[in-house]
Amino acid sequence: MNQQTNQQEPLQVLESQGLASVTLTAHWSDEQASHEERLHVEKFSIWREADMLPSEIGRNLAGLQQGDRLEALIHPGDYTGSWRSTRQIDTKTASFNRHHRPGLVVIPRLGRFYPQAFFKGVAGIYREVVEPARIIELNAERIKLDLNHPLARTRIKLQLGIDRVLPGRDQHTGRCDSLLDELLKFPGLATPLQRGEDIDFGDDANGLTRMDDRTDEAFYATPRLIQHLDSMARRHINALYRRLIPPQAEVLDLMASFDSHLQGADLGKLHLLGMNQQELVKNRLTENHITQDLNQNPNLPFDSDSLDAILCTAAIEYLTKPTKVLAETLRVLRPGGILVISFSNRWFPTKAIRIWSELHEVERLGMVTQWFRQSGYTNLNTFSARGWPRPYDDIYAGQTPHSDPVYAAWGYKVD
């Protein structure tokens, strides 16, 4: 046998006209939380796209191999446009067109972002512009809008990682859209208001109602032994949980099912609390099962200061009293304990709270992070991962090109 067949092939080197699969990561912070945004690009071309990245990255890509990383700082205003006070506009509240979307009455809310087409006859606003305007002041007579990019005053740490060097070369003309634009277009929708006020996401009494008012016991009576997210999204969630949960932690999987996404984690003890006993008993990681409807009884059956970590996966949108449940999680965590909430863009619309369907995906992340703060959590963080190819075995393979996005927020109980 040829000895070469047992040796690992050398890693390919990315050439000046080469192709690669890469992941862009942005780290930034605001007054409420620290954020990590990941965008995967399955086919990145140095020839077409390197010059749209910071020079510390774009000029140093040639010669890299799989696993290599480059970093750069994006200073406030770079790639987002400089923040300008002239882009904050006062107008009449009546200029907000509540009927802009046929068949739907939209209410203006403090802190929310709206397409500029919602505002009629306002100087400096054009219907053709797709960027949103944010309401930063609101009363019965006047609205103050902010047209600046929500990250225009933010310092961002950017990283590009080489996931794989691909075969082939590319000398085609440049793309019209920028990868940085794609990375930074939406994360700012989760930023808090500058003055520290709560954003009115619409999570009031009406916003927390549901289309299907039947008891959850009836809805979840039939076990659903299926995955609700694709395998790539589950990998991201598993990696995040393994990264955040301390070794030998006592963990509660809240609103659990047959898969806690904790494969490979170093657990001390795992508790499950969910709606369907048949689903819970199929979970191979533990035999500690509790059946409870948190919308009927938000009180957790655990002693105060008794758990190290609590997880809630793809389920937060079904809670009709989310801050009460989060306050309970804070009570039962030990000092220094962590709560992690993750979700995607797949859910049961009739059982989710009404406001969930009305918000942009990233605004949902902002709302959940605000719930953390309102419930007493500190050291808040968020995470997003999007752009990976949809797995071939997913039910939506061939319909949508990208894997289910993953959004997560976490916070800690004060020591």
Topology (SSEs and partners):
Elements: E1 18-29, E2 33-45, H1 46-49, H2 55-58, E3 69-74, E4 88-92, E5 113-115, E6 132-138, E7 142-146, E8 156-169, H3 179-184, H4 216-219, H5 231-244, E9 249-256, E10 267-274, H6 277-281, E11 289-291, E12 307-313, H7 322-332, E13 333-343, H8 354-358, H9 361-374, E14 378-386, E15 406-412
Parallel strand pairs: 2-14, 9-10, 9-12, 10-11, 12-13
Antiparallel strand pairs: 1-2, 1-8, 3-8, 4-7, 5-6, 6-7, 13-15, 14-15
Could you please describe the fold and organization of this structure?
The chain has 415 residues and is an alpha/beta fold. 16% of the residues lie in helices and 28% in strands. The longest helix has 14 residues, at 231-244. The termini are far apart. Mean pLDDT is 92; it is low at 1-5.
List the defining traits of the structure above.
disordered N terminus, Chitinase A, domain 3, four-stranded antiparallel β-sheet, 9 helices, 415 residues
